Amino acid sequence: MDDRRKSRRDKVVYGGVAAINERGSTRDCVVRNISDNGATIEFGTAAGLSDQIALTVAKKARTYPSKIVWRRGNTVGLAFSETTDASQLSERLRKSEKTKRELQRKIKVLLGES
Length: 114
Hints:
There is one protein chain. The chain has 114 residues and is α+β, with helices and mostly antiparallel strands. The protein folds into two domains: 8-82, predicted glycosyltransferase like domains (Thrombin, subunit H, Beta Barrel); 86-113. It has one helix and six strands; from the N terminus they run E-E-E-E-E-E-H. A hairpin with a 3-residue loop joins strand 2 (26-34) and strand 3 (38-42). The termini are far apart. Residues 86-113 form a coiled coil. Keywords: Coiled coil. InterPro entries: PilZ_domain. One of its GO terms (molecular function) is cyclic-di-GMP binding.
């Protein structure tokens, strides 16, 4: 197999969490190898994954916006997105704040405070 990676990946076994959509759904995963540009991760099942995910690795204290570039069974290969510019961060913050307000409203309704 042709190795097209830009940098060498370190073999690891880290716990990870993949944010799989904009609604905040997450799935636990195991990081099998990682580099500055990508990673291989393994899920219990890879069904229902979108092409874009955000991988959080607690051991590295980082979240990597990522694109799935290949799939084999329950294992996927990720390419980390290039640096996120300020406009993308601003948009993500706006969406996050909107979601937070919606959740706070729902909590008030459930608690009978509205």
